[in-house]
Design goal:
142 residues; alpha+beta; three-stranded antiparallel β-sheet; 7 strands; 23% helix; 30% strand; globular
Length: 142
């Protein structure tokens, strides 16, 4: 995930997702430089088997993605209980209200919604305006 403020994003992912920093790079292969011109630093964060790669590039314009263009809409992370959704929502609000992070969107987390199959979902934005869904899927569904 490209970000205009790598330190802000890394710290938010460490705190919100309770991630662990695995490694960081500031020297890159010719292949990486050709694919991501101007890349300055890349950090890998891990939450269990899930890996996040966050990076910054020289010349980032700071604009949010064009909502009418191609867009990575969201990633869904399954949680083990409805209580985890409540805790995730509470943690997002607490971190946002701390004022320690800069967010490109002021949108707070959604309410926890339940679909006709009993699947419960919560949607939140990271500091870059990228959306994540947290979902509790009852056993035997989907």
């Amino acid at each position: 995930m490209q970000t205009a403020d790598l330190d802000n994003a890394v710290e938010w992912y460490l705190e919100f997702f309770r991630a662990e920093q695995k490694w960081s790079l500031d020297r890159f292969s010719e292949l990486t430089l050709s694919r991501l011109p101007g890349i300055r630093r890349l950090v890998e964060l891990a939450v269990g088997d899930l890996r996040f790669h966050l990076f910054d590039r020289e010349g980032h314009n700071g604009r949010k993605p064009d909502e009418d263009g191609f867009l990575f809409q969201h990633a869904c992370i399954q949680v083990g209980s409805p209580q985890e959704l409540v805790e995730t929502r509470r943690r997002w609000i607490e971190i946002y209200e701390s004022g320690r992070f800069s967010f490109v969107r002021a949108d707070g987390p959604t309410d926890i919604v339940v679909d006709d199959d009993g699947v419960q979902s919560l949607y939140v934005f990271d500091v870059n305006g990228l959306e994540f869904e947290f979902a509790y899927i009852p056993e035997g569904h989907r």
